[in-house]
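Re: the request from the purification team.
They wanted to know what the chain is likely to look like in 3D before they choose a buffer screen. I agreed to run a prediction and write the result into the notebook, where they can find it.
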Amino acid sequence: MSSFQVKIVGDFCNIRCTYCRNRDFDQDTNVVMSIEKLEKLFVFLNSLPQAQIRTNWHGGEPLLAGKRFFSHVLRLESQYQQKMWRNVVQTNAMLVDDEWAKFFHDNNFLIGVSIDGSEKTHNSDRINVAGRDTYKEAMRGVEILRHHDIFPGVICTVTKKTVRYAEEMLLGLVNAGFKDIAFNAFYNTASDCNGDTYGLTDKEWLTFLIEIFETWLTLNDPTVHVRELDSMLAWTKSKSANSCVYKGTCHQWFVVDYTGDIYPCERLGRTTHFGSIDTLRTFQDLMDTPVFLNWKESIVQLPKKCQACSLQSLCHNGCVSHRTADEEGVPLYTYCESRLGFYDYIMRRLGGKEVNNHVTQKQFFVGIP
């Protein structure tokens, strides 16, 4: 099923995360997708063959588009009632107020927030335009959401600056009340990834994951779900994880900029341009473009290391955007060794036993040193 991430304000944002992959683009200009463009977008989305349409309203900071913009989203969804619309907003939560929270709750929006671990680690990277801390203001927004019975999941970005604080970051999120947690290893592919001072090495990411796993075990709280752990525990049962970074392709995930231009996943930047909703009136038009067909074929190439790997059917060469050319020039997952090393580590800790994700951590490891 295809999904669309719509950058309704482009890169416009109210904070200035030091690592942001959009830092090389224009984060200062106040732009919002026009209502005319939004209407064209819905004509395009309505042409998808699937019954359910999942739209991720994104930025920059999507709440900068304003409440009136989102009221137009609902108006257009009501015009296309033959589709089941699922709205997702990823926000830094700093603009959330009671009116926003009530709107999201009443209209069944799914909300994700961006909090980078503890107050200390969050504030080391996520600062406002004036260079000041943002943790307290972001958590104020989270608490307003919870007051309206919205319990958002959280995405926590890990950089070279914070990678040493795995335990602190996980416990910071758990103590702040989060139950659904995802960690993203920062690896800048939106512009120039060479020499980015915030990107993690393979070894750093492996060390971080192991510390997260061991910290999670000590919690002994089965209500706390960490995406990276759930994914790897699925591997122990020979099941592929649900996350897109285990699918080997992202040809069903698209970005629509506020201009109407269509790209692949935002992590891949803007070097591959599929066209625009101004000229591609239907989803099938997009599927038939030579640019899309050539790109779709190019991202499923497997390097020799993957072809010889017993876990290839579960891994699929990792995230498409996190690949660098091997010695033969075929893109290989940048975090291949950490992914395989983390799997080996968990299997050793389990003594080769399979894991049931629905029992407590203590039950997982009865009798295992």
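For the purification team: The longest strand covers residues 84-91.
Please add any questions underneath this entry.
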